[in-house]
Amino acid sequence: MGILDVLFYTFIAVVFFQVIYYLFFLGRFAFLKHQKTDSKNIPVSVIVCAKNEAKNLKTFLPSIIAQDYDNFEIVLINDASQDDSLNIMKAFASKHNNLKLVDVKNIEAFWGNKKYALTLGIKAATHNHLLFTDADCKPVSKQWITEMASQFSTDKTIVLGYGAYTKIKNSFLNKLIRFETLITAIQYFSFAKMGMPYMGVGRNLAYTKTEFFKARGFMNHMKIRSGDDDLFINEAANNTNTEICFTKNSFTKSNPETQYKSWFRQKRRHISTAKHYKQNHKVLLASIYVFNFLFWILTIILLAFQFNWQLVVSLCLFRIIVQYFTMWFSTKKLDEKDLIFFFPVLEIFLIMAQLTIFINNLVSKPNHWK
User: Fold this and answer.
1) Whether pLDDT at 201 is above 60
2) Residue range 83-108: average pLDDT?
3) How many CB atoms lie within 10 A of CB 26?
4) Which N-terminal residues, if any, form the signal peptide (predicted)?
5) Span 9-26, pLDDT tens digits
6) Nearest partner of 351 among 300, 288, 299, 304, judged by Cα
7) Which domains does the chain have, with CATH numbers?
8) pTM of the predicted model, to two decimals?
9) What HEC string does 77-99 produce?
10) H helices within the chain, ranges in order?
């Protein structure tokens, strides 16, 4: 048996496992029907941690203040900002009595550590149910708190939401960022519904203060600068305490990076955090990446040598059709339908970018919380 035969049979196996992955793993979210839940008027503390976010606070904080929810407070954490963030927080607080300020000063033990600032904010929160977003995020509707809070129950103490990015016309980088965000969300939603929650995003995330202290807060990974969202969820979430929220009124939206260098630096931080996930989660995510990489690289090699090219093309198209079929339902749920036509190109670019980032992280450590 020659090397091309080995590559061909490997290709068949890769296509088989990818079809299973899309239909039966990602399909858990794609084909999931939304179960309408009753609104709950539980008291909620919205937590916003800001470091040098003066401009964003002016722009995005009003959309949180304007939420159509009866019983909520906003805990604004000024994480040792050097700009005008604290004064802007004070100005908003003087006009709204449900705003609480937590001014964090740098101390030597936790210098520049966002988790330390968040811990102080969580301790200062009045209510047990906490809803997190970033200073550069805007809820897409006035029902954001209502939708996220409705997923809490006696058993469900963690709620994973979707943090989208603003669409920018004629920008390939914007499509790439949104594609990566979409794929990540589909994965963590799907695996949460399978009883294997492994991450969430701090742009739109909720959990109880009780759950936070039950997990000893961020203590088990306090020395890791990043991961206040995904590392905490990776540790605290399980098959009984986690729910997802994907109604369109529950989304938040952020302005994405507009330069490749900035996005590359941001993704380096995110990928470096993933190595601290539980071992089974790391194996799972690594396997997904390897199968994606092998699918495209084997397709290119086999077609380049025209080895059983008719069958290779047929299997490649079959896998892409299954991908489109599954992802179409997910893009409709998450309001990202415009990306569906660019999937193969975006997937190849993302695979190569992730490989480059992984190699860079082996050579040098990325920077963290600014």
Assistant:
1) yes
2) 92
3) 22
4) none
5) 999 999 999 999 999 999
6) 288
7) 3-29+280-354 (no CATH), 34-258 (3.90.550.10)
8) 0.92
9) EEECCCCCHHHHHHHHHHHCCCE
10) 3-20, 27-30, 54-65, 85-95, 114-124, 144-149, 172-193, 209-214, 230-236, 260-274, 279-304, 309-333, 343-363
